[in-house]
Amino acid sequence: MDEQLQGDWLDARLREEAPYLDDNGFTARVVQQLPARRSQRRSFRALLLFCITLLASTITYVVSGGGKFLATGMSDLLAQPIWLLMITAALVSVIGTSVATLAAVAKLRAERQ
Amino acid sequence: MPLSDADLVARVLLDDDHHAFAELVRNHQSPIRGLLRQLTRGDAALADDLGQETFVRAYKNIRSFRGEAKFSTWLYRIAYNCFREEARKRKELVGIDEAQLEAQVDPNTVDPALRQDLMQALQLLPLHERSAIVLCCQNGLSHDEASRVLDIPLGTVKTNVLRGREKLKKMLAAWGPN
């Protein structure tokens, strides 16, 4: 009986030894250390990509003499026989579809794990 | 009506909601910091640093929380891992911060001398028994939950709690119920 009483007494004292600790700015300090929200990171990444693309396009335009290479390239392409263009388009489609399918399968596997 | 842990976790998962995570921190900071204070033998500053590390890690890895255990159990586990890594780094943790202990004493509830003796008795226990006692007897975790937090078998937790309690009883025999 004494043993039981002593056990109960000890449990009660141990519970009393776990008082509520006031926050005292703890939560604010944790929140300050959290990484930036993903949406903010995404916006920043999108902005960065847009700026780099814009810069690269401008440089290319200037270096290529006002984009004349585009007109030349298009006329060269149109001068090719039609069967060659169709085979090229089919190959590009097959390769693109394969890559997209592989990426989807890999993502599905990663999500299941 | 306050949101449940599951609702708050869902908000963090969906939108990286810092406000929802702050609510989770507010709800769980006291027991996590309390556990870490006991594990660090009363070093409040170190315990709070580890507490912050615990919650930041929880935020970064919240996608690995699958809801199989309670959110608090998951947090205890992260806190215990943070403590173990720090202990490994330091090898020997700093001693009891007497001034901090004095500041925590509430004279209306517990005899300060008893409180000090209990704290010292707890800190004399080996780490594995102290951790089991703090989790099960102070924080109310079941033996099963404690075994998940400490990553040891259920039987070992029960043995550690039993041995720890016996040692505490002996050390505090003079204070027992009259």
Largest interchain contact: A-B, 28 and 40 residues
Find the count of extended strands of chain B (DSSP E, 2+ residues).
Answer: 0
Strand content of chain A: under 5%
DSSP summary, beta strand count of chain A? 0
Uncertain regions of chain A: pLDDT < 50 for 5+ in a row? none
Globally, the shape of chain A reads: elongated
As a whole number of angstroms, the C-alpha radius of gyration of chain A is: 33 Å
Distance between the termini of chain B: 44 Å
N-to-C span of chain A? 53 Å
How would you classify the quaternary structure? heterodimer
Please write out the topology.
The complex is a heterodimer of chains A (113) and B (178).
Chain A: H1 2-16, H2 26-33, H3 38-63, H4 68-78, H5 82-112
Chain B: H1 5-15, H2 18-39, H3 44-60, H4 71-90, H5 98-104, H6 112-124, H7 127-138, H8 143-150, H9 154-171
Please characterize this protein's 3D structure:
The complex is a heterodimer of chains A (113) and B (178). Chain A has 113 residues and is mainly alpha-helical. Helices cover 81% and strands 0% of the residues of chain A. Chain A contains 5 helices and no strands. The longest helix of chain A has 31 residues, at 82-112. Chain A is elongated and about 105 Å long. Chain B is an all-alpha fold and 178 residues long. Helices cover 72% and strands 0% of the residues of chain B. Chain B has 9 helices and no strands. Chain B has helices at 5-15, 18-39, 44-60, 71-90, 98-104, 112-124, 127-138, 143-150, 154-171. In chain B, α4 packs across α8 (143-150). The longest helix of chain B is centred in the N-terminal third of the chain and has 22 residues, at 18-39. Chain B is elongated and about 55 Å long. Chain B starts with a helix and ends in a 7-residue tail after the last helix. Chain A binds chain B through residues 5-11, 13-21, 23, 26-27, 29-31, 33-35, 37-39, and chain B through 15-16, 18, 21-22, 25-26, 29-31, 33-34, 48, 51-52, 55-56, 59-60, 104, 106, 109-110, 114-115, 118-119, 122, 133, 137-140, 165, 168-169, 172-173, 176-177.
